[in-house]
Amino acid sequence: MKQHLRDLLSNNVPPSEDILREVEEILVIPRQKLFETESEIRKLKNQLKFLESKREDIQKSIDEYRPITIPIRRIPPDVLAEIFYHCLPSHRNPILSESEAPVLLTRVCSSWRSLALSSPCLWARVHITFNDEYIGPYNIRVFKLRCDVVKDWLTRSGHCPLLISFHHTTRLTGLHYGFI
């Protein structure tokens, strides 16, 4: 940059018409280069957008086959059943909950459901809780449904030795034990 133009940048003096023409002449080439560069950027952005879309389509195509190739599918059922067994809580009996093994394992896919339901050792331990919420005429139906779940659980255990822990509130009466 020429010194006389640099001086104008350091003060607030209005430029003359000659200076304005000089600056406009100086800026012709940079403005043209800027225009060309922005045009090239637009083209490259469009090309990038196209390539990203193409990549996404290719990835979708690959993802379609991914479930077939995942290693867990190649594990033999007896080994997978053993892994399932090790998913059970080790410090207590499993509870009747969809959020932990063995029930959780039945919710993954149909083959895991079938394997888990046919693995008696998964169902040989259970912690049964009957709380106050199941007491009362309105909740007897819920209480009976919970008892049915326990019966199904224990039936799945087959001939495996059972380990059952049981908790109930002191408000349970002998009448309710008839459901157990």
Structural features:
coiled coil, 2 strands, 7% strand, mainly alpha, F-box domain-containing protein, two-stranded parallel sheet
Low-confidence spans = none
Order of adjacent strands in the largest pleated sheet: 1-2
Which structural category fits the helices and strands?
Answer: mainly alpha
Distance between the termini: 95 Å
Radius of gyration: 37 Å
Integer average pLDDT:
89
Keywords: Coiled coil
Protein name: F-box domain-containing protein
Report what the structure shows.
This is F-box domain-containing protein. Residues 34-61 form a coiled coil. The chain is mainly α. It folds into two domains: 3-68, no CATH class; 76-177, no CATH class. Helices cover 56% and strands 7% of the residues. It is built from six helices and two strands. The protein has a two-stranded parallel ribbon with strand order 1-2. The protein is elongated and about 105 Å long. The termini are far apart. The relative contact order is 0.07. The mean pLDDT is 89.
Layout of helices and strands, plus pairs?
Blueprint: H1 3-9, H2 17-69, H3 77-87, H4 110-117, E1 125-130, H5 140-156, E2 163-168, H6 174-177
Parallel strand pairs: 1-2
Summarize the structure.
With 180 residues, the protein is mostly helical. It is 56% helix and 7% strand.
